[in-house]
């Protein structure tokens, strides 16, 4: 019986590589994602030269869609978007699931831990992350604090005598002029 013999034979179909057009058996082609995000069947030569296996999702992705992370791992765009954030200070991608991006500045810009520790400070009044160069020392009734520009503008006064920034609770007003506690105590108010 000829029909039963044909059912017992595995038929190998030849097809072409979607990248280079090389004709090869279908079982020698690897499924991959091209640079446009389409699923393609690619020969071993093209896989080795133009594709990288993403360690996060396990897919072979075109090298134009692969990005290097801060830890030296090459990941695809899909995994990059889902699991990594870009630190604009050091210009590298960090895995958010590892806790390497924990901070955001007042504009919502992601900051990696290393850059935050090197360049940023939490405003003691509002809690926003600000550049170290944008922190102002402000005298409060109990201590000196570091405030961001917005908090300084909205909630502090400059002593007209010594030039020290003081918060609202550490300033005193006399004759429409603001003084820090020390300068206010030195005033001879009885001279009026």
Write a brief structural summary.
By secondary structure, the protein is of the alpha+beta class.
Topology overview:
Elements: H1 2-7, E1 14-16, E2 23-25, E3 30-33, E4 39-42, H2 44-50, E5 51-53, E6 60-62, E7 66-68, E8 74-76, H3 77-83, E9 84-87, E10 92-95, E11 101-104, E12 110-112, H4 113-119, E13 120-122, E14 129-131, E15 136-139, E16 144-147, H5 149-155, E17 156-158, E18 165-167, E19 171-174, E20 177-180, H6 181-186
Antiparallel strand pairs: 1-2, 3-4, 5-6, 7-8, 9-10, 11-12, 13-14, 15-16, 17-18, 19-20
Task: Report what the structure shows.
By secondary structure, the chain is α+β, with helices and mostly antiparallel strands. The chain has helices at residues 2-7, 44-50, 77-83, 113-119, 149-155, 181-186, and strands spanning 14-16, 23-25, 30-33, 39-42, 51-53, 60-62, 66-68, 74-76, 84-87, 92-95, 101-104, 110-112, 120-122, 129-131, 136-139, 144-147, 156-158, 165-167, 171-174, 177-180. The termini are far apart.
| Average of pLDDT | 84
Tell me the distance between the termini. Answer: 125 Å
Q: Portion of residues in helices?
A: 10-25%
Name the poorly predicted regions: none
Counted by DSSP, the helix tally is 6
Tell me the total number of β-strands.
Answer: 20
Rg computed from alpha carbons, rounded to a whole number of angstroms: 32 Å
Largest sheet: 2 strands, antiparallel
How much of the sequence lies in strands comes to: 35-45%
> What is the helix/strand order?
HEEEEHEEEEHEEEEHEEEEHEEEEH
Q: Categorize the overall geometry.
A: rod-shaped
Q: What strand line-up does the widest sheet have?
A: 1-2
Give the oligomeric state of the chains in this entry, treating copies of one chain as homo and distinct chains as hetero.
Answer: single chain
């Amino acid at each position: 019986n000829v029909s039963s013999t044909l059912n017992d034979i595995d038929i190998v179909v030849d097809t072409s590589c979607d990248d280079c057009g090389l004709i090869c058996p279908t079982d020698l082609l690897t499924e991959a994602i091209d640079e446009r995000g389409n699923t393609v069947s690619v020969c071993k030569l093209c896989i080795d030269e133009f594709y990288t296996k993403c360690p996060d999702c396990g897919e072979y992705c075109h090298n134009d869609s692969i990005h290097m992370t801060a830890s030296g791992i090459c990941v695809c765009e899909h995994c990059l978007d889902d699991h990594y954030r870009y630190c604009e200070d050091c210009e590298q991608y960090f895995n958010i699931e590892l806790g390497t991006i924990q901070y955001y500045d007042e504009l919502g810009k992601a900051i990696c831990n290393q850059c935050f520790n090197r360049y940023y400070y939490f405003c003691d009044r509002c809690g926003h992350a600000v550049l170290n160069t944008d922190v102002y020392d402000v005298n409060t009734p109990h201590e000196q604090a570091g405030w961001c520009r917005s908090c300084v503008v909205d909630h502090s006064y400059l002593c007209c005598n010594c030039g020290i920034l003081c918060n609202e609770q550490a300033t005193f007003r006399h004759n429409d002029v603001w003084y820090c506690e020390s300068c206010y105590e030195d005033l001879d108010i009885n001279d009026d």
